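Tip: read the tokens left to right.
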């Protein structure tokens, strides 16, 4: 009888409102207000509920007793998991995120994927889940023929610092220019692709050098971002080469894919182009080569069969929605994706510039992720220095990094991920509003209150005390932390955690304005210190799950 769930929610009219009676009354074919009145009459007399009244068409408005709220506060303060359970225990999630491309700069799109993916990984692991990270880097394709051939023909060093992407980006530009204008070079580059695919040792070695150089660069960016991707998580497109012929064969034998115009294709009834012609997923191209689709099918099958995924997540730009629909659909038809395993394209919107168009430099190039991060940290340094004139040198640099990177990540995570958002460094570093800095500041403020408590902040809860409205509100908000994390996982929506932490910081501010903590005496002092302590821990843990550092001072 799922209908009979009480459906408790927080309410503006009471601590909680139970809406479940409406559905129950419909099932019973009875008057909902009458059923609600009976529910109220039968509530247990255990002292938890102070008042329960029927409201509206048949809701039940519930106020909890102060004692019940204080008992919950006491339990939370004594629990280093803050009431968060492990509902993900025994569940394996394979999550595909970040996915930059070899020999190309990382841009804001990769920032989104990396930051959203990292937050989901942290929350899933915190809820007890097993998470396998997959950095599906673009390390295969025809462009490597061009890059390698250019290097062979121009062995002199290409300008640029080899520790950055500078050298490879220059190499890419030079090779591309020659490829586009010199058809003899283009032919040699194509032959080089064939050599690479055939495993020619010197060609493969040259390819490996390029991959290694880029990977070192990506790792450096991940370190700066403070995300947990490592080399072991990098399993690029090339890793599936050996599996591709079997993927094609199986699809063909099973009748899932058919040959059309020489290419091996999967067709979908409901997917058509603007001309009304069906748009297929191309598994094998007419020249026999495999592309992005085949690689993703092989990766998917490996994730289910060998990694035993219970859930597959792909944190990728919304513009690839059709690709993933086709890949998932094909895998279901082929029997590689059991009905019990959900595959989700965790899509995200575009980062826009101040003009409301996709973010570009003034020259119209994509913005390099490293430049964006450097700028954010530089601006954060100014904000931090203005607040702490005494902070200098390495300590200032460290704080600037914590605030700058935190600001960039928070701005990305705080909006519903499917929406586009405008990249605005000024706003993301504002001390007021829904920003990372505001939350880091709220956390530091709680820490400083606790540090100032002369008794070391003895936060023993006295459940017999009475509560002010602002204290009640804070206890109820603190109690919603565990449910919020479950919602983050259910919808793959880190912004729900941001919204929660922002509200919590505001509720705490109201509490602190109305309820003196350090000047309080008697049982109230311990209770209020407990509230400060729990708020601080909840903010710290929540920000940490978003990948945002929490310095003790700002
Ligand atoms: N490398 C691709 C890009 O930069 C994204 C890869 C997404 N992941 C995947 N399994 N297809 O657009």
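Filled-in amino acids:
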């Amino acid at each position: 009888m799922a209908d009979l769930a009480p459906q408790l929610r927080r309410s503006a009219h009471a601590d909680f409102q139970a809406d479940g009676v409406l559905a129950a009354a419909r099932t019973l074919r009875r008057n909902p207000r009458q059923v609600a009145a009976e529910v109220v009459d039968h509530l247990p007399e255990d002292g938890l509920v102070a008042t329960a009244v029927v409201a509206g068409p048949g809701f039940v408005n519930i106020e909890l007793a102060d004692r019940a709220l204080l008992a919950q506060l006491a339990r939370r303060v004594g629990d280093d998991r803050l009431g968060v359970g492990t509902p993900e225990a025994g569940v394996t999630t394979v999550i595909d995120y970040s996915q930059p491309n070899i020999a190309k700069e990382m841009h804001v799109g990769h920032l989104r994927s990396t930051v959203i993916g990292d937050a989901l990984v942290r929350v899933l692991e915190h809820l007890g889940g097993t998470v396998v990270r997959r950095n599906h880097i673009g390390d295969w394709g025809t462009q490597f023929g061009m890059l390698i051939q250019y290097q062979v023909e121009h062995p002199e060093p290409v300008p640029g610092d080899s520790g950055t992407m500078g050298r490879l980006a220059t190499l890419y530009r030079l090779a591309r220019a020659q490829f586009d204008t010199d058809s003899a070079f283009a032919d040699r580059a194509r032959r080089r692709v064939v050599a690479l695919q055939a495993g020619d040792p010197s060609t493969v070695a040259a390819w490996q050098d390029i991959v290694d150089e880029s990977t070192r660069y990506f790792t450096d960016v991940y370190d700066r971002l403070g995300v947990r991707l490592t080399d072991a998580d990098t399993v690029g497109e090339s890793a599936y080469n050996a599996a591709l012929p079997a993927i094609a064969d199986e699809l063909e034998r099973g009748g899932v894919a058919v040959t059309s115009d020489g290419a091996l294709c999967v067709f979908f009834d409901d997917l058509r182009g603007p001309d009304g012609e069906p748009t297929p997923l191309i598994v094998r191209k007419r020249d026999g080569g495999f592309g992005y689709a085949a690689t993703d099918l092989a990766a998917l099958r490996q994730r289910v069969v060998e990694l035993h995924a219970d859930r597959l997540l792909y944190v990728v730009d919304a513009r690839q929605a059709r690709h993933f629909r086709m890949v998932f659909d094909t895998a279901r038809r082929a029997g590689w994706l059991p009905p019990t395993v959900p595959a989700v394209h965790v899509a995200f919107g575009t980062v826009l510039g101040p003009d409301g168009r996709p973010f570009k430099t003034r020259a119209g190039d994509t913005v390099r992720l490293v430049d964006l991060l450097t700028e954010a940290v530089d601006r954060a340094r100014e904000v931090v220095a203005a607040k702490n004139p005494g902070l200098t040198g390495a300590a200032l640099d460290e704080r600037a990094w914590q605030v700058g990177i935190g600001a960039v990540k928070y701005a990305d995570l705080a909006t519903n991920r499917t929406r586009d958002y405008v990249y605005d460094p000024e706003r993301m570093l504002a001390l007021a509003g829904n920003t990372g800095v505001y939350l880091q500041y709220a956390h530091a403020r709680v820490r400083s209150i606790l540090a100032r408590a002369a008794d070391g902040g003895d936060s023993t809860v006295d459940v017999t005390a009475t509560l002010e409205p602002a204290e009640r509100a804070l206890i109820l908000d603190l109690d919603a932390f565990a449910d919020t994390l479950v919602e983050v996982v259910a919808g793959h929506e880190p912004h729900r955690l941001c919204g929660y932490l922002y509200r919590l910081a505001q509720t705490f501010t109201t509490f602190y304005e109305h309820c003196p903590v350090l000047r309080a005496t008697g049982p109230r002092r311990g209770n209020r210190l407990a509230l400060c302590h729990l708020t601080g821990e909840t903010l710290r843990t929540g920000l940490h799950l978003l990948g945002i550092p929490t310095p003790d001072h700002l």
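The CA atoms of residues 431 and 510 lie 17 Å apart. The two ends are 52 Å apart (CA to CA).
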